[in-house]
Specification:
Elements (H helix, E strand, L loop, with lengths): L1 H25 L7 H11 L22 E3 L2 H9 L3 E5 L1 H18 L3 E6 L4 H14 L5 E5 L11 H12 L4 E5 L10 H24 L3 E4 L1 H6 L3 H5 L11 H15 L1
Parallel strand pairs: 2-3, 2-4, 4-5, 5-6
Antiparallel strand pairs: 1-3
Length: 259
């Protein structure tokens, strides 16, 4: 097993370092987007006055942040028709509606969402547990969470394991992996962002080896394979540009969910 995991980890770290270098080289290409990106970037971290124990800053409170949550009627319809539950953060608040339309147009799949800006994965898994208890679960669950875990990466693996436990062995848990390098912060913090993103992704890949029903949607690798995408498909180093990045990320998700 170790022989299989080591090259994968090396690939993630190497690609992550290349991505960080590419972002530093391409920062000027995104300057026109900076002003518009600041509000969304601020949702990711309320405080960057301290770099915190892992270099990316300190997470702020998220309970009053923007959110998008489906109605009970939509949740029930989604479960009854074999649709998809989605739990995400500010990226999903931005992109969730477009994803729902894309899924519906592709093959009629319904999407119910519980997306909340600035929320760490612990909160997303709490919501998953609540829906499982209140409504029951469909056979496909989509987690699009983790960007806000760059502030405390060691807690992430336990939340992935917790989500897998809630979903159970007879359902499939899809998880979109991470690429976070905020353009609004200093170069040192950007490097910490990339390091912590890669750390979170490694925890996902470790979990995938333990849990056969966990499927990773490789958004980070899709961005890294052609470095220009980091500037063109991310408007602030975190959130997809609209419509270019949004369409690309949502299509990756749809292809994984329905083919």
């Amino acid at each position: 097993m170790r022989k299989q995991t080591t090259p994968k980890r090396r690939q993630i770290v190497t690609a992550g370092a290349a991505a960080a270098a590419a972002i530093a080289a391409q920062t000027q290409t995104a300057s026109a987007q900076t002003a518009a990106a600041r509000p969304a970037a601020a949702e990711l971290a309320a405080s960057t006055t301290s770099t915190g124990p892992y270099g990316s800053g300190v997470a702020g409170f998220w309970s009053s942040a923007t959110r998008a949550i489906s109605t009970p009627a939509q949740i029930e319809r989604t479960r009854q028709t074999g649709g998809v539950y989605m739990f995400g953060d500010s990226i999903s608040v931005q992109d969730g509606k477009a994803l729902a339309v894309r899924l519906l147009n592709r093959n009629g799949t319904q999407l119910a969402v519980h997306n909340w800006s600035s929320r760490p994965t612990s909160g997303a898994v709490d919501a998953l547990q609540q829906w499982a208890s209140t409504y029951g679960l469909p056979r496909r669950i989509l987690m699009a969470s983790g960007s806000n875990d760059i502030f405390d990466p060691p807690k992430f693996a336990a939340q992935v394991a917790r989500a897998v436990s809630i979903v159970g062995q007879n359902r499939t848990l899809y998880w979109v992996n991470l690429q976070v390098v905020r353009r609004s912060v200093s170069a040192a913090v950007q490097l910490a962002d990339q390091r912590n993103s890669s750390w979170l992704n490694m925890q996902l890949y470790d979990a995938q080896e333990r849990y056969p029903n966990l499927r990773i949607i490789r958004w980070a690798e899709w961005l890294w394979v052609k470095p220009y995408r980091l500037a063109n498909y991310l408007r602030d180093g975190v959130h997809p540009s609209v419509p270019l990045g949004q369409d690309a990320r949502n299509e990756l998700i749809v292809q994984s969910l329905v083919g």
